[in-house]
# Entry
Amino acid sequence: MTAAPDRKIVFVVRPTRLDDLVVRFNTVQQAQFYVEHLGADFSDYLIEHKRYREAAHRTEETLRGFGRVQRLERRYVPNFVFGADDSVVVLGQDGLVANTLKYLDGQRVVGVNPDPARWNGVLLPFTVEDLPRVMAEEARRPVKPVTMAKATLNTGQSLHAVNDFFIGQRSHVSARYRISVGGQEERQSSSGIIVSTGLGSTGWLKSVYAGWATATRCLLGRDVKPVGDGSFAWDAGYLHYFVREPYPSRTTQAGLVIGKIAEGERMRVVSEMPENGVVFSDGIEADYLEFNAGTEATIGVAEKQGILVV
# Structure
């Protein structure tokens, strides 16, 4: 097969757990000593690393048959300038696909599962063996749109989320803020706010619903009618918010704790935290905006969608 010289393919990869351990302990041998000294099995780290590296090599070799390949490490994704016509191939896990999608603007993403026996791969519909067929048909293949969320601060900064936003304190102390949504406003003290997309609703939001339902059953001492698990369609034109552990007091309320943010509507949150306030997306604490006293965050459905090849 002859590669198309004008076709650019960005191949996104990530470090393995073993790679991260070597960064911490300098060598594989020292990492192995640390893990086994604690009584854990180090062989699984070696197996995962070997399979991922083999999958990365095979994927890159296949992609070179279709165009110019630029290999991109995960840590460089936020600052990388993707071309409008770039093809993007991500060698998962799911989180790497989500973290890549939010830095794109209309480019299609092919998610590849490096180890189907290990990873379920909700966002990884293809294996390395599928790539020759998928890349040949990429422009004609169906796609699945993914609704994103966007947070914009009154400082001019903004951040997208494919799964969800967390708004609150970096540590485990209470977050204090004023929240306004759906024409209502109140001052709150809580463990933070989760704003979820449809894609993220099967993750963090689902766990919140599960905890809420279990607590309700325990408190009432009997089964209650199920209210669902909070999940909704990936391309839904709205977001879902949930306030974690709101604390009512003389100065704080707990009325605005759950609801939807429809497309075109906005939630506004004004920080009353002198320090350590954050807005971070997709469970990545390093990918955050500072959210301290006086900062206002406006959250709503993003102006762009993620595009997944299926």
Notes: The radius of gyration is 22 Å. The first strand starts at residue 8 and ends at 13. Residues 43-63 form the longest helix (21 residues). The domain at 148-302 is CATH 2.60.200.30 (Tumour Suppressor Smad4).
